[in-house]
Amino acid sequence: MIVDVPGGRDPIAYVWGEMVPGIGAAASKFSLAVYAHTTLGLREFEAARLRIAQINGCVFCLDWRTERDGVKVEDGFADAVAAWRTTDAFDARTRLAAEYAERYALDHHGLDEEFWSRMTEHYSENEIVELSMSIGSWWAFGRLNHVLGLDTACMLTDGPSPSVKPTAVNPTAVKATERGHVT
Length: 183
What we know:
mainly alpha, globular, single chain
């Protein structure tokens, strides 16, 4: 970890909440909002989120699976996201979400008319703006957590999405959500 966290302190809570409380609290609210207020389908949401996680290399983000009403994407979904160009597991919207996430992160100047024509064929303007803001959140905060080494400080192997009120059944998920861990 790049940041010197005092002994016994939670790295995420310390960095996001104590080191930069004015910025960290606002960033946390934005990051959590993309989960709580999304109108996107789970598959396209997760395709974009996971593609950004793969690009950023954020360990926590790669381990996370968004859950809605007890449903998560199927096993192997992350592999399909990595192979978004050739996989037969995706419909057009899901494939475009993965492509958009990748191009947003790696080639935003290359988003040309042909790409936008395909996007507007499958997504409304509101959905494009929502997906853009979500991708921006994941790109910025997943990268921040990875660069500072915070992504290895709070790995989850299972737990509810940030939009789901955590329960004591999974104390790791409760702790992550309570401290405002976001990606």
